[in-house]
Each structure stands twice: as C-alpha cells, then as structure tokens.
Amino acid sequence: MMHRFTTAYRATSTHTAFFAVLLLLFCTMPVKAAAQQVGEYHIKAVFLTNLTHFVTWPENVDRENAPFIIGIYGPDPFDSILDKAVAGEKKNNRPLKIERYHNLQELDPTRCNILFIHDSKVDEWKAIQSRLANYPILTVGDTSGFPEQGGMVNLIKNGQKIQVEINHNAVQKSGLTMSSKLLSLARIVP
Amino acid sequence: MTVNQHSKRKFLYGSVFSILLPLCTFGSSGAQTQQPEDATLLYLKGLSIEELLQTQITSVSKKSEQLFNVAAAVTVITQEDIERSGAQNIPEALRLVPGLQVAQLDGSRYAISSRGFNEYFANKLLVLIDGRSVYTPLFSGVYWNAQDTMLEDIERIEVIRGPGATVWGANAVNGVINIITKNSGDTQGGLVTTKVGDYIQPEVSARYGGQIDDKTIYRIFAKGFHQKDYKDPEGGDAHDAWESIRTGFRADRSHTDKDTLSFQAEAYDNEADIRSDLANIGTPGWTETNGTEKYNGGHVLTTWQHRINDTSDIDLQFYYDYTWRDQVVAEESRDTIDLEFKHHWDPAGSHDIVWGLGYRWTSDDIDSTQYVSFDPDSRSDNLWSAFVQDDINLIPETFWITLGSKFEHNDYSGFEIQPSARARYKPTERQTIWGAVSRAVRTPSRAEHDFTAYLGNGSVNIMVPAPSPPFPPGMTVPLIVPANAYVYGTDDFDSEELIAYELGYRWQASDALSFDLATFYNVYDNLRTLEDGSPIISLNPPSVIIPAYVGNGLEGNTYGFELQGTWQATDTLKIIAAYSLIDFDLEYKDPALRGNSISDEQLTPQQQFQIRSYLDLPHNLSLDAELYYVDKLEDRDIDSYLRFDLQLSWQAKENFRVSVGAENLFDSGHQEFPERQDILPSEIPQQFWLKASYTF
C-alpha cells in the first residue's frame, strides 16, 4: 500500500530507461497533421478578416495608405485572437487594423470600415445607427436578432459550427456590395 | 545518493538524448508553430470560406472571466508570462505575482505565502491544480517540490490574494492559487523540450496530443529532470540535489452540445537530498545530517460539465489522490477521495447564483521516527461542505454586490462558517472600485492535534527526596538529571480565524496603460503559538520532560497593499512593475508573554518590488528581463536581495525554438530564508541555462 508507486519506478536507473522508452514511443508515433483545436472566436476572427475580401466599399472610401479599420464596440470577446488574425493582412494594400471603442464618441465613422458590436451594446442600436449616419460601414454582430434590428452580418453559433446571417437590404442601403459567394453561404434575413 | 551515481546518471541521460533527439527530428514533418493559438489561426486562414463555415468548434470559448470586474485582488500568470520569465518550475513562476512571498530554502524546497505568515509549512494559502487540492492536511501547507507538470501545458495560474474561503473553503485564508492546465485541444501535436544549465542537468519533457475519435482528444506527457547540488553558505556542497520523473495523461470529450467530459491521471516519483540539523538523542547538541527525502504519488481526476440551458449549468468533479513521502522526521502515506458538485444559475434579472456541495475523505498512515510520532498513527477524516454565492447587479452595468458563505464540517474543529460580502462599482467602463469583508479560518492540521515532536535535550537540576536512611525523612537534595524537550499537539487546538477588510481600485488609464491597487487590513484571532507547560518529572530513572503545547495564544492584525502597473509601451515592448508592502501588529493574548519574539512577524519581507519587460525584436528574437527586490528578514539575519534574470529566445523555425537565460545575474548567490532544524538553507545561486523546444 505504502509503496504502491515506488515499486513502479523505484530504482533510479529505471528513470533513464523509462525516458528512453518514452522518447522512442513519441518518435515512432505516426506523424500526421496535428488536429487543430478550434474555438468559436477563432472562427469568427478569421471570418471577420476574410470578410474584407467579399465586400466592396465605395471607391471614395478606399483612401490609400490609411489603415483599413475593424472597430470593436464594447468589450472585446476575441481577447487577442482578432489582433493575431489580422496581423500582416491587407485590403487593397491597406493594412488591417483593430480599434476598440468604449463609447460612441470614440467611434469616428469617417475612419471605420467594419464595426463589430458586442452583445452588450446591441441594445444601443438606435444610437449606433445615428452615429454611423450613412457612412458605408459594415456592421457585424454575434447576437441573435441582430440582423432583424438592422445589423448587416451576424455570426451565430449553430451546434458546433458558425452560421452567417446577412441582412442584404441593410447592406445595399449603405452603399456596400457583397459577393454572391458570400450571400450564397449565408442565411438571408429578414 | 553519491556523487558517483550522479555523474553516471548524467552520462546516461546525455548519451540517451544525444542519440534519440536527432531521430525525432528526422522522423517528423508537418510543422506547426510554437503557440497553439497561432497554429489554429494559421490553419483556419488556410481554409476557403466554405470550409471555414463547416469547421467544428472543438474547444470552449476563449472568453475568460473579465478580471477587471472581479471584486478581489486577482493576478493571472499566463502561459506567455511563464514562457517569457524563463521560470524553471511553478514556485519560480509565482515570483511574478505582486506581493506573493516566494522564498527558496534549498535546491527543491520553497516557502510561499500571501500576505504574510510565510514558512516552509505556510498554512494560510490554499493551492489547487485543476480543482484538486494539494494542501497537505498533515502539517498544513504545500510540499511545493511535489507540485509540477509540463510548464508548457499550463494555461494560466490564477492567484487570489486575500481570503477565498467563501468559495474555496477552509485554509484559503490569505490566498488561493489555482493552477489550470490546458484543455487537450490546446496541446495537439508533439512537443519535446530539453533544458541544460549550471544546475539543471538536464531536464527533458515530451508531450503528444492527438484525437481518439471526432469528439475526444487527448495528450500524454512525461517530464524528468536532475538538478545538482547548490552550495551551502560556507561554500561546500549543499547536499540538496533533486531528481524527478513524472508522467500524465488527459482526455477531453465534447460528448454532446451540452456535455463535456474531462479525465486526467498523473504519477510522479522524486528524490530530493536534504541537509538537516537534528537534535541528538541521548546526548546534548545537534548534528548536521545529510538525508534524502523520497516522495511519490499520483491522482486520477474526472469532471463532467453539463449545460442545462442558456442560464444554468452544472459541474461534477471527482478525484482520487495518493501521496507518499519519506521525509526526515516522518514517513506518511495518504489517500484522498474528493467529490464536488456545483450549479451555476443565471436567471433573468440581476442575479447570478452559484452553489455547491462537497465531500472529502482523507486517510493517512504514518511511520513515526525518534523525532516525530503520531497518536494514532493512522487516521481517516471527513470533510463536508456546502457553499452558496449570489452576484447581484443592483445598478445595471455599474454596481454589484456579491454575498455568499461556505459551511463546512471537519473532524478537528467541527462546524465552520466562512461568509463574505463583496461590492464593486464601475463609475466608468475603465474603472472599477471594489471592497470586501470576509471571514476565513485555518483549520487544525493532523500534526497540531496528534503529534509529539522531539526538540532536543540537556540537563536540569531538580530537587528530589533524599533516600532515608541515611538522610532524615522529608529532606530533598539537588540532582542533575537528563531533560528532553517535546512539543505536543493537543485536541484543544482550534481554528485560526481571520476577518479581512479589503479595498481595491483598477484603472485602465488608456488602451496601453493600466493600474491595479489592492489594500488590506486583516484581523486575526487564535493564531498558533507554542505554550510552555510544567515540567514532567519521573523518578525512575530520574528524568524530566520539558513540554510545550500547541495553542491559540496569538492575535493581532496585518495591513498593507499591492500595486501593479502594466504598460504596453509599443507593439513590441511591454513593461510590468509592482510594489508591495506589509506590516504586522501581532500580540500574545497572555500579557505575561508579551515582549517575547513572534516568529510569524519575522519571516515575511516587508517590501517587495519587481519590474519586468517583454521585448520582441526583429528576426524572431525576443529579450525578456525581470528584476526583483525582496526586503531583508531583519530579525533572522537574512539580507535583502536583488535578483535579475534575463532570457533571449529565438524562434529559429516555425517548429524550433532556442532560449538562453541567466538567473541572478547580479550576484553569485544569496540566502532567501533562515535555517530550520529540519532544513538547512542553501545559497540560491547564479545560473545559466539553455533550452530548446521542438514541435511536430
């Protein structure tokens, strides 16, 4: 009883032997592409990054050299994932950049290109809409009912996958154009 | 353990690895980057948008509890902190926590405490690894040299300074440390690391994570190291070499949308040399003794998390833990079974309720030595517990109060109630002010009730009746007789109690700069003391026992604060600085004893300071530096020290990383803790190391 584990690996010389066996075991294991462990916000972050390629912004907004801004309004559910996802990415030669807004005054609608609205801020939709005025800003959320209220793109966890919902009327009204490929993958609401 | 054996083993290690490592390198392909998160993103970015939307979510949300909103003094050490600080083991990583007292005694032994009362058996800090308590009920404390795992597989270490008893239960008096390892999903693929240095010769660890079926993932790891002797304060061999081997397995299963299961098992075996200054038996004085502490153990742990609906989930956890330790003064084996249930309910409205039930059974078997004996030598104890806590949002998004209490019954001190009231106020999105009043107790250990410890011997003069005849009846004469001093545990020893008052402030000054201040005023009662008893004289043969009894004779308060500032100076440079101060005002309850020294006041540095920087350089290099200042222990002749560590890392390839590091760059060695009879201190040395990690 008392030496239950001791007897298993007691003699110090067996340590080395144990290591050797273990290492051999690892080395001879068939090496395959490691299965990736994927979180909800990993997928959302990469989707948000890719979204830039499936949406066309009006010409006059494509100012050269200025960074292409993805804003997050409210708490950041991505932690640092979105920052890592956009690192090194470009849209029309403009580097993608993340900005975080804690209140609407910090949001400059002439700079922002994509706005991710945190769940806790969707209630302020009316105020957000008036702040965005008619600037061509792609609004993205992950709250159920978001596109029904007038949001453009919604990322909803459906089982173990991410489902995209798009309010196409809202997109068109803002002057943005969305690729048919993206539309074909989404559920169009309302 | 002789020097010869050591060098022979070193040779064996060396040759085995030099043969095997190249084999590993040739045998693998399909490189992934070092950090799993980056690897995941890289993989996802390589998918088409259709594939992306078909990808299964396999791990829980990265959304971590927002520490900014917690009404307690919390610090989180992330995997990045562990990696960048070059920490050799868990105790070294804990140096990163502002105000935590971490003192290394010798090669393998640490004294770690929060908000004072540091000791080798520091008894007011509760430590859990993946929800499993590693606090020993034998002496009340943590054997830090048995708490290890593959450092790369630690997700984070959450440290709460101050009481956490309402949720965590007894002994979470001055702090709780939660070591949380990664989900198997975050440790997929292979990883091999080796480290060699002046003292680490070598450390090797290997892990492989894979998939059992489309819902179940696992990892298996093994780690071993040999650390050679430090120096004693006189410059001789400290006889504190350390050897450890450990292996573990973990599997995580997303059984259904609503159920996740986790299972882990681990076993270890260690030998840690030790120098002691043990009191002679039979003759006066002490003798320095070289010994070896042997210890091993293992556990199995399983958890089931079930989401009932969007507002309600339950957690069920079971573990069995076995430890065996042959320390110089006693040999102990212990079995523990623990079952916990937790229900989290977030009803519509302003409440967020957590409640739970727990049961723990622990049973020991102790072989006494001439130094320490236990009566009874085997004992089983039960611990029943329940807790409830409600987080109430009184003003939406602005003001919350958290009320709760733990109710426990243990076999030593009976019922214990440990309530707390916490409040937090967010005047703006970027500021949190919090306050708390809590009660916590430190329950008696097995030793404090049941042990007898031999302290030493000498001789005393006693008056004995003179034999008559020849002397007249009733006459007494002086006689020099041997005297032995013992400490006795007593069943009267009761819990130590704390009422803590805390106040804190967090301020996100800008996106790059934040501050965290926590202050405390702790009021203690029934703190442990040793109380002298009347000498016990026996006449046949003539001898005297000078007894001391474990008692609750101390009270008083402590106060202080911890302040941390974090500054993301640029995209590539982060600087963290922290300062902490603690002061003691303890007093013997018995006025006759006042004026005597109080060891609880002497073993905690009054001030600590640290500044750390993480710097990313071009060409995949990073340079990280840490400077720690720890105040002197004046009454114990331990000088203050300044420790400077530096690490340079190079991500040579996506799957290969090399680091070199230096610890204690400013001095050649210093002592961090005073000597104890059972552990003679070593000089904590300057050391250099080289580490390589390879992923596949």
Automatic annotation (TrEMBL), chain A:
Keywords for this protein: Signal
Any Pfam family hit: DUF4154
Superkingdom as given in the UniProt entry: Bacteria
InterPro entries: YfiR/HmsC-like
Residues making up the signal peptide according to the UniProt record: 1-33
Full protein name: Transmembrane protein
Tagged with keyword Signal: yes
TrEMBL record, chain B:
Keywords linked to the UniProt accession: Cell outer membrane, Membrane, TonB box, Transmembrane, Transmembrane beta strand, Transport
InterPro entries registered for this protein in UniProt: Beta-barrel_TonB, Beta-barrel_TonB_sf, Plug_dom, Plug_dom_sf, TonB-dep_rcpt-like
PROSITE patterns: TONB_DEPENDENT_REC_3
Residue intervals of the TonB-dependent receptor plug domain: 68-176
GO molecular function: siderophore uptake transmembrane transporter activity
Gene3D superfamilies: TonB-dependent receptor, beta-barrel domain, TonB-dependent receptor, plug domain
Classification via CDD domains: ligand_gated_channel
Protein name: Iron complex outermembrane recepter protein
